[in-house]
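Lab notebook, design round three. We kept the backbone fixed and only want residue identities now. Task for the bench partner: fill in a sequence for the structure below.
Input structure tokens:
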């Protein structure tokens, strides 16, 4: 076999070469980990850099994007080198078979995967953690494998990264194999319950410094052997944790030594948002760390109108962190699940008992679909209580799709959820405040937007709809009470946003609720609802369960 030699390099076999379609030159990695560029016409060799990995490499080939892949014969690891980037460091891309002789070839212009290849389980953390295939995302081969977390595993042609992950949007959530039994607190042992389909090895990582990647020292579980069924695993959390919202990753496989990224021949990977705690902090979640409560609005107040209670549907979860001195941080997560409103509305959440001056505004942040909001001030100014302004106009973030008038309320007008948000509101100093549940979520009229014939001018922020018997904010115009319509509010007796019979214009349901389709009265879709509402919640407590619904009147994705 022909050898090509330069004065400073070891002899290279032409079988070790792969031709880069981007420049027509050949590349090879020698046993010392040096990357060589070869001109096949002249036979000249240029040593570019050390890749950081040594060994005997075979089966070299390129993809259409100019990425070189080589297989380490001794352990079967497949490494990727982004030749065109100028960074020649090897990154472990996948696990493969070990071999004393490891040759291979592929068409350099063929994609690594195609949209029709539904064979691989990817995960859905933000892509900075290694999610998409292009980023060498964590992934596991599904076909032929019976090893996975939880009850099932689904496969994709590529990842769907947060906040638009497939698990939240396709009604096929397979992130069901790991449940945290304790909080993740610095200098303490965290416990998670792992549900495995069979025998394998589990590894886990937590972004403890919140820098958006799983660093090498952030692996908290190393090839922990598990068997079929549920069992606890224990993770020792070091000191120096940055408190707040972060991400974790769990991988199960029959193969050991997996990294936080790269491929595996079997098993599954699951990503979970987590909250990190300082050693003296406890956190209360509502309705649970990974659960959702539903807020539903009828936006025709003070009129009942169609009373379909789907003009704005928001899934919410909250977390309140505190220490011995008081409340230290509030986290709010949400998804806009439906918008069946003819009017333009905003959405906000009040934190009762927390003055805006107690909030660390410089550190407070709101992210919508993963992007930090900078277009408006998220903590409303000039108020006596903290009000998080999620959006001034929901229509800015959702669209109806073809032939639909509303967003996810009409038959045959389903779509993936388009708007998710997450807010972190830290305190300057611990605050004495009793925050529970979903706090005070409310709908308000978009400033400048028409609101119907009841109003000579657009009411804007002076128009609000709150949960039953929740007083409005100081921005509300109390002259709007007791105008023409069905409202029977009486501020003097703390009676707010309800009819004479006690029917509300806003609801909280402590689960991910299936709401009525457009123009269908909630009392018809859920026949037990009216008695629940008029009894002030004393009767028909399970009215909201789908088994108690007229399912022909319920929206389905």
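Proposed sequence:
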């Amino acid at each position: 076999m022909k050898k090509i030699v330069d004065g400073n390099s070891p002899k290279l076999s032409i079988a070790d070469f792969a031709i880069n379609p981007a420049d027509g030159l050949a590349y090879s990695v020698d046993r010392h980990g040096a990357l060589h560029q070869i001109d096949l016409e002249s036979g000249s060799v240029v040593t570019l850099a050390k890749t950081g990995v040594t060994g005997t490499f075979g089966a070299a080939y390129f993809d259409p994007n100019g990425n070189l892949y080589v297989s380490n014969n001794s352990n079967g690891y497949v490494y990727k080198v982004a030749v065109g980037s100028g960074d020649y460091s090897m990154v472990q891309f996948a696990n493969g078979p070990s071999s004393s002789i490891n040759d291979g070839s592929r068409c350099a212009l063929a994609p690594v995967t195609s949209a029709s290849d539904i064979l691989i389980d990817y995960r859905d953390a933000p892509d900075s953690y290694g999610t998409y295939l292009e980023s060498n995302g964590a992934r596991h081969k599904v076909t032929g494998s019976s090893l996975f977390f939880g009850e099932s595993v689904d496969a994709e042609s590529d990842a769907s990264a947060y906040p638009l992950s497939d698990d939240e949007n396709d009604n096929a959530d397979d992130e069901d194999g790991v449940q945290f039994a304790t909080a993740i607190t610095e200098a303490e042992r965290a416990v998670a319950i792992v549900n495995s389909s069979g025998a394998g090895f589990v590894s886990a990582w937590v972004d403890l410094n919140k820098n958006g990647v799983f660093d090498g020292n952030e692996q908290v579980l190393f090839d922990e052997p598990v068997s079929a069924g549920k069992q606890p695993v224990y993770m020792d959390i070091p000191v120096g944790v940055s408190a707040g919202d972060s991400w974790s990753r769990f991988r199960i496989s029959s193969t050991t030594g997996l990294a936080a990224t790269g491929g595996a021949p079997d098993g599954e990977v699951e990503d979970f948002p987590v909250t990190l705690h300082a050693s003296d902090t406890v956190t209360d979640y509502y309705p649970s760390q990974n659960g959702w409560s539903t807020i539903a609005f009828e936006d025709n107040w003070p009129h009942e109108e169609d009373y379909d209670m789907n003009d704005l549907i928001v899934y919410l979860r909250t977390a309140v962190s505190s220490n011995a001195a008081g409340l230290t941080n509030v986290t709010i997560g949400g998804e806009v699940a439906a918008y069946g409103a003819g009017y333009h509305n905003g959405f906000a959440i009040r934190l009762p008992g927390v003055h805006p001056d107690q909030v660390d505004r410089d550190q407070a942040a709101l992210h919508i679909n993963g992007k930090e909001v900078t277009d408006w001030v998220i903590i409303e100014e000039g108020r006596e209580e903290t009000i998080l302004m999620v959006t001034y106009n929901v229509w800015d973030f959702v669209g109806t799709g073809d032939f639909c008038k509303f967003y996810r309320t009409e038959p045959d007008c389903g779509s993936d959820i388009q708007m998710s948000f997450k807010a972190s509101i830290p305190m300057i100093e611990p605050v004495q405040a009793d925050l529970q549940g979903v706090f005070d979520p409310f709908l308000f009229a978009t400033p400048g937007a028409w609101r119907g014939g009841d109003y000579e001018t657009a009411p804007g922020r002076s128009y609000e709809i709150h949960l039953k018997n929740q007083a409005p904010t100081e921005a509300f115009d109390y002259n709007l009470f007791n105008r023409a319509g069905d409202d029977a509010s009486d501020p003097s007796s703390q009676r707010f946003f309800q009819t004479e019979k006690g029917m509300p214009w806003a609801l909280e349901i402590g689960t991910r609720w299936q709401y009525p389709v457009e123009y269908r009265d909630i009392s018809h879709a859920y026949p037990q609802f009216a008695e629940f509402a008029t009894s002030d919640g004393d009767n028909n407590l399970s009215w909201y369960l789908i088994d108690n619904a007229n399912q022909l009147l319920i929206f389905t994705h």
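Keep this in mind before ordering anything: Confidence is low (pLDDT under 50) at residues 1-11, 165-174.
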